[in-house]
Write a structure and sequence with these properties.
heterodimer, B: 5-stranded parallel β-sheet, 12 helices
Chain lengths: 135, 456
């Protein structure tokens, strides 16, 4: 057993307040996720995700607004297109595509955020540590 | 409305449609299509002779929900501003058969012009207020209430036109066969607070339903049943009105109407409409025979809200209404600077709230114009011209059309950019950076988060 390290890229207007709500509602979720705020999930470039893995993150969570709910009209549509392709590339490169997860979490879904983090941490825990993979 | 029409600083472009919006706060360029109404506005004085003499009659009036009729040249309703009629091409005898021109011959000011064409106006404006309103829930989407199938099942707006003294029936409430109803059921929450249609509360239905109950009691004295989920009388004086109606012998039943049927099971139900419901205060299922059913249908976003949102660069909340910048701190502003929203296009609201919001939007617009300057958000995208390959991917990615190609290189308009960074995520040569969220900053944050700390 090891404690995985997960980086979460959360958008300012939906998922970040969602995570905040999970905190203020005192929901328990694993502390393995480190949240980095971006303005829109569309900002998260594939290079940034790959770089995150290379720096040793065991998993990457990208969370944005639900469709039609995006503060930036349709930034999240781009993310939705991008992530599945990147997953294919990860698989091609010999990495488990489960390490990358895309979720839509709104500002009112604190519970959902806690659930996602719990599930995702469990998934990552089942995979070998990234450090060993990189070695 | 009259004072708006007469104000020297207000120009009303009715029967017109915005086709294109470009530019940014303070410098919007708006293309408006002014449709041909076939009446010269500068000549017409609204005498109404053309409407009187037009031979194309019995066209269902949209304003009267099809209960009344209009002519082919008409004003939507008597108090319409501006008081200038329009010719409905589809029903006009001249446009369909090539003969008639009665209105042209009879108009004392020679204002009718069958050759008129659509005009495109290019306007330069500083701020824009979007107040496109709402649509009513289409009751045919809820077939269990029998709207359109059973006689004497009316929508709220149809009943409103019927009971209006200026309306098509002159204020008489009549059944299809001409009788006066002895009993009326008013069903609340049709199409709102319902997970099958819209989850939100439409806010206005409780109060207009109470108004209907009062008008029915007052004008024809029929027995009124109000079937409600919760009575939401939130405004000033509203609760008092509800209390007053309880004294007017209106029967309030706590329970949503489940079905309206004409299949009688008992002798006293013969020839009546039967409203089925669960009375949650009595804890039993009931069948209420009535003569007329009014469906209090809820408010919905306009059917063309998607196109409007795209045109003005507005976001929409999950219920489909336009999204304000902040629900408490910026309730009339939107994510696009200089574009404001007011009224039911932002969410269901009643007349006092709409008037208040419209006043707020006007005040914000005026203060913006008065300032003459505008502070921009600091986090915007910047292009490194050296690295830009000019592929144009960012142009497609930008939700605000803030990027254009200048001499084969991308250029970000600082006033239009809202700093979402979608272009940054899309840029292959990494030529675009988002200030305050640069790659270096995010990577440093990420590296810090991944640092192994040894606890001593």
């Amino acid at each position: 057993m090891y404690e995985p390290k997960i980086i979460g890229y959360l958008c300012t207007y939906c998922s970040y307040p969602g995570a905040d709500l999970a905190g203020t509602s005192r929901l328990k979720y694993p502390p393995n996720v480190n949240i980095i705020r971006v303005l829109c999930s569309g900002r998260v470039s594939p290079e940034l995700i790959l770089r995150t893995f290379r720096e040793g993150a065991d998993g990457v969570l990208v969370a944005g607004c639900h469709f039609g709910d995006c503060h930036f009209i349709n930034g999240n549509h781009r993310t939705a297109k991008r992530i599945p392709i990147l997953k294919k590339i990860l698989e091609y490169a010999g990495m488990e595509p489960q390490r990358l997860r895309l979720e839509w979490i709104s500002a009112s879904e604190g519970e959902r955020f806690a659930e996602v983090v719990e599930e995702f941490t469990e998934t990552i825990r089942g995979l070998p540590p990234m450090k060993e993979v990189l070695r | 409305m009259v004072s708006v029409g007469q104000h020297e600083n207000i120009e009303i472009l009715s029967f017109s449609e915005v086709e294109e919006v470009s530019g940014y706060v303070g410098n919007f360029e708006v293309k408006v299509r002014k449709k041909a109404r076939y009446v010269k506005e500068e000549l017409c004085n609204g005498c109404g002779l053309c409407q009187e003499k037009c031979p194309a009659r019995n066209i269902p009036s949209e304003f009267d929900c099809g209960i009344g009729s209009r002519k082919a040249i008409y004003m939507p309703f008597p108090q319409a501003i501006p008081r200038i009629p329009v010719i409905d091409k589809v029903n006009c005898i001249y446009f369909q058969k090539g003969r008639c021109r009665a209105c042209e011959k009879l108009c004392p000011r020679e204002a009718v012009d069958f050759e008129q064409e659509d005009r495109i106006l290019d306007l330069e404006v500083g701020t824009i207020i979007v107040a496109t309103g709402f649509d009513l829930f289409d009751c045919t989407r809820a077939p269990q209430y029998g709207y359109g199938r059973l006689d004497n099942v009316l929508t709220s707006l149809e009943f409103e036109r019927m009971i209006n003294s200026q309306g098509p029936t002159g204020g008489k409430v009549l059944l299809k066969d001409g009788r006066v109803p002895q009993s009326v059921a008013i069903l609340h929450c049709i199409g709102s607070r319902d997970e099958n249609y819209n989850e939100y509360c439409s806010r206005v239905c409780c109060m207009y339903s109470l108004k209907f109950a009062h008008l029915v009691r007052d004008s024809i004295g029929a027995q009124v049943y109000e079937l409600y989920i919760d009575m939401r009388t939130f405004g000033k004086g509203y609760e008092e009105f509800y209390k007053r109606l309880m004294k007017e012998d209106v029967i309030f039943i706590r329970g949503k109407g489940a079905e309206v049927t004409d299949v009688a099971e008992r002798p006293r139900e013969e020839g009546k409409l039967i409203v089925k419901c669960e009375d949650t205060l009595l804890g039993e299922l009931r069948r209420i025979p009535v003569d007329m059913v009014i469906l209090s249908n809820g408010l919905e976003p306009r059917r063309d809200a998607t196109q409007t949102a795209r045109l003005f660069g507005l976001s929409r909340s999950r219920d489909g209404f336009f999204l304000e910048k902040h629900p408490k701190l910026a309730p009339v502003e939107t994510a696009s600077d200089g574009i404001l929203i007011a009224g039911a296009c932002q969410g269901p609201k009643d007349i006092p709230d709409t008037v208040a919001q419209a006043g707020a939007a006007a005040a914000v617009a005026l203060s913006m114009m008065d300032m003459g300057k505008w502070t921009l958000e600091p986090s915007i995208a910047q292009v490194d011209v050296e690295r830009c390959s000019g592929c144009g991917e960012c142009l497609l990615a930008c939700p605000y059309k803030a990027i254009e190609l200048v001499e084969g290189r991308a250029q970000v308009s600082e006033t239009l950019c809202k700093g979402c960074g979608t272009c940054v995520g899309h840029c292959l040569p990494k030529a675009i950076t988002l200030l305050h969220f640069t790659d270096e900053q995010l990577v440093a944050e990420m590296q810090g988060a991944l640092l192994e700390l040894e606890v001593v």
